[in-house]
Amino acid sequence: MRHSPRPEFIAGVRAELPILLGVVPFGMIYGVLAVGAGMTVGAAMGMSSIVFAGSAQFVGVQLIHTGAPGMVIVFTTFIVNLRHILYSASIAPYLARLSLRWKWLLAYLLTDEAYAVTIIRYNQESASPVKSANRHWYLLGAGLALWSTWQVSTAAGIFLGAQVPSSWSLDFTIALTFIALVVPTLRDRPSVAAALSAGIIAVLAFGLPYKLGLIVAAISGMAVGLWVEEKQMPNSRRHERGDGR
Amino acid sequence: MNVWLLLICMGLVTYAIRLSMIVMIGRVNLPPIIQWALCLVPPAVLSAIIFPELLMPRGTLDLSFGNLRLLAGMLSVVVAWHTRNVLLTIGVGMVALWVLQAVFPH
Fold first, then answer.
1. Both B24 and B58 in a single domain?
2. Taking the C-alpha atoms of A155, A156, A161 and A164 in order, what is their torsion angle to the nearest 10 degrees?
3. Do A54 and A147 fall within a single domain?
4. ipTM, 2 decimals?
5. Is A240 contained in some domain?
6. What is the per-residue pLDDT for A166?
7. By Cβ atoms counted within 10 A, which residue in A17, A187, A209, B69 is the most buried?
8. Which residues form the domain of B59?
9. A147-197 pLDDT, tens digit each
10. Is there a domain that residue A241 lies in?
11. From B27, which residue of chain A is nearest by alpha-carbon distance?
12. Is A52 helix (H, G, I), strand (E, B) or coil?
């Protein structure tokens, strides 16, 4: 059965695998940084499972190290993770029929990396007439694959104090992973316009504090994409796109 | 603030953001224009992360040929466009960066 839970789960895990290449060094670097910032082994690992958000963890460790007040750290976490509201809204229609228990579980697993592979799959699927009743298993597979890899790799960084030589430049795999995910989706003008304008504005707004530049850039990029869409085909969009997403 | 209390607050904030729209949708229906806008979230957010990584690897804008990450990244864009293969894109980009770093050491 193509759409029973097990194959959906496995497909989610599989889709996540290439991304894990970029996640492992990222997690190990976090582990090394957290211990270096003076966090205990328990707290450093606790952050990986309780917060479970890569960039917020890096910023958090940095702020803890500089002795920032707790409220500032919590508010910064809020700002850095604000983009997940967009992920949450974007994925929500596909999860609308699930029980609350499923929603609670999947919300915990809704990271950048799990969202990225899942939404691309769901958007493709919604263009085809066959819809899977078990597609939430796909997100569960992707989410758990990322979760376990993140826990193990941050633990490895913490315990081994792993000195991944910086000359290997393994952090570059994160950017490469995002390139591999986003470039194939740039098949129409609004997407290209959104990507280019978001990227340029991200560079211009890079100096803004608390990663706000990322949020400003993403929202501006989406606005430009919508504007291009509106100019391109003012009448047809609602027929094509507005049907029950 | 106790470090564990801090971690729990950070976790709750993160979780509340991720859960918010998932539990609200169904009760709150998003208009079509918002739904279409959300299709643009992946290209917009991912590009907003990619561009600074490639164009300003040391924190300032660097459009020169000395910016090896930009060169390797552009090659990986070409590979991604033609093959749509995630592993191949990452592999080619990484190898390109290593080769460039070996040929043009800083």
1. no
2. -130
3. yes
4. 0.82
5. no
6. 62
7. B69
8. 40-106
9. 999 999 999 988 875 455 666 776 687 788 789 888 998 989 999 999 999
10. no
11. A96
12. coil
